[in-house]
Amino acid sequence: MAIIGNPKYEERINDHIAKYETKRSAVMPLLYIAQEEYGWVNQDGINEVAQILNLDPTQVKSIAGFYTMYSEKPKGKYWLQVCTDLPCALQGADDFHSWLKEELGVEEGGVSADGMFTVEHVMCLAACDKAPMLQCNFRYVENLDQDKMRELLAKWRAEAVAEMNGRGQG
Amino acid sequence: MHILLRGRDIDNIKALAVYEEHDGFAGMKKALAMKPAEVIDVVKASGLRGRGGAGFPTGVKWSFIPQHEPVKFVTVNADESETGTFKDREIMEENPYQLIEGSLICAYAIQAKAVYIYLRGEFWDIGDQLDECIEALREKGYVGKNIMGSGYDCEVYTHLGAGAYICGEESALLNSLEGYLGQPRVRPPFPAQKGGGLYKEATVVNNVETLANVPFILNEGADAFKAIGTEQSAGNKVYCVSGHVKRPGNYELPMGTTFRELLYEHAGGPLHEDRPFKAMLPSGGSGPIVPLTDEVLDTPMSYEDCANIGTIIGSASIIVMDETVDMTWVASKVTKFFKHESCGKCTPCREGTYWLDKVIDRILDGRGSPDDVKRIADVAENMAGTTLCALGDFAANPIIHTIRHFPDDFAQHVQS
């Protein structure tokens, strides 16, 4: 699909454009929509956002590259961003982050062989009293330890399998 | 008594009906009965200072807005990204209407056309909640045309960032909101001036916690607010405590409370009884580190008293470290943060953070020399004061002050 002409996004795109004084201001919310549609910010998404806002694709691409929440390459189904900033690190976040990569067999920022997981470290997520913590597809998961994390990984894997089976039947 | 974290005292204050039952929009009602300039005078008289870190007097900031300009804006800085800071999150999650009411009072005081709440992208669920609040307020006539029958019109919008610490810097925030790279602007013109604010219009940029204080000030009066805290630091402050304490979390206490009371009585003292406190970053990664001596512990947490011990209270993101922590590692951690978050616009910050990180890595690896320690201090001193925004100074602080207070922590890595 695309975002232009897609009824799923039409109202949201118009609402975003309407709330600002200039069309250009809507570039960030529209990049989120492109990421939602394609799973990452690919060239098609950039071209469409540029077309909607009368911008040059290069201008849109520079915005996408500046901010860490726009992914410029495909990620695993579960994109895990572990905070390893100072307050979390004082509670063992560096060790937790290394352990998680080893547990999943992934390099920093890479995708696991089954396409399920990407692990990377990020800067402070404003959850310093609940360390170690991470965000999974931008949802906060706090007060973690290895046992709790193993349970979560099993749950996410089961969810993905259920989703695949559901698709097969549908 | 909580003025800000009222979600802890009042069940479900995030529901509009409950908020209204507990003085919700009483401050706004009083503001609307006054002339805009009188509202600014009340906030000035309260002594409220900016809670984002700089501590600038809020009413004075509002008074810089030229009244004759036809279009003005309020921008709420909800980009909460300073290492160790998690106070605005709790205010917005648990007491969202109070932030919106405070923003609307500010908007009325400067006669703004609209309020934009700039949230860090990770707070998208808080953004969704605020959008619902705004719609509920619109239905009841608190937002939109003819607010509470006053004839004053104002819109409120949310905007999500996408992961960039620099957007907490006010001019970078405005660029980001306009759809440009989040990089600081050359000033003057300042945001409060025509040409310097949002869409080149005069704009007030205030932190979440700052604005959340405003309904209380209007409803209870400037004197009631000024009665809390110290002479130069009025009101309560939300202190975010993290690191090696038993009970990390947010604590709302009067300004001027001592570090000792916060860290021992409220946060429970050292995490491990046999490991005493060594040091503290009182304002996240950006403020000067201080050793946790008795003198420091007995210092009142106010703008003026923290200056006396060579640091700042800033956003009050207090990161506590016990005696097991190597300050060279702390300098490295904080430097990596600023290296990642430098926007790349000014050469001293972009290149300085890169080289600092490289040399500290070398020192931590045991490949450094005593000259390397002098070198990073020298690089940091050359960065300070040479950049368009304060990030360059912030990035210099962790080096300069860790070396000053903890020279042995560095020496142990560079002596064979």
Protein architecture, described:
The complex is a heterodimer of chains A (about 170) and B (about 425). The mean pLDDT of chain A is about 95. Chain A is an alpha+beta fold. The two termini of chain A are about 20 Å apart. Chain A folds into two domains: about 5-65, Arc Repressor Mutant, subunit A; about 80-170, Glutaredoxin. The relative contact order of chain A is 0.10. Helices cover about 50% and strands about 10% of the residues of chain A. Chain A is built from seven helices and four strands. In chain A, a hairpin with a 2-residue loop joins strand 3 and strand 4. Chain B is an alpha/beta fold and about 425 residues long. Chain B has three domains: about 5-225, NADH-ubiquinone oxidoreductase 51kDa subunit (Rossmann fold, 3-Layer(aba) Sandwich); about 235-320, Roll (Ubiquitin-like (UB roll)), CATH 3.10.20; about 325-415, NADH-ubiquinone oxidoreductase 51kDa subunit, iron-sulphur binding domain (de novo design (two linked rop proteins)), CATH 1.20.1440. Helices cover about 45% and strands about 15% of the residues of chain B. Chain B is built from 19 helices and nine strands. Chain B has helices at about 15-20, 25-30, 35-45, 60-65, 85-95, 95-110, 125-140, 170-175, 210, 215-220, 220-225, 260-265, 295, 305-310, 325-340, 345-365, 370-385, 390-405, 405-415, and strands at about 70-80, 115-120, 155-160, 200-205, 235-245, 250-255, 275-285, 290, 315-320. In chain B, the strands form two sheets. In chain B, strands 6-5-9-7-8 form a five-stranded mixed β-sheet. A four-stranded parallel β-sheet of chain B has the order 3-2-1-4, with helices on both faces. In chain B, a hairpin with a 5-residue loop joins strand 5 and strand 6. Chain B is globular, with a radius of gyration of 22 Å. At the A-B interface, helix 2, helix 4 and helix 5 of A face strand 3, strand 5, strand 9 and helix 15 of B.
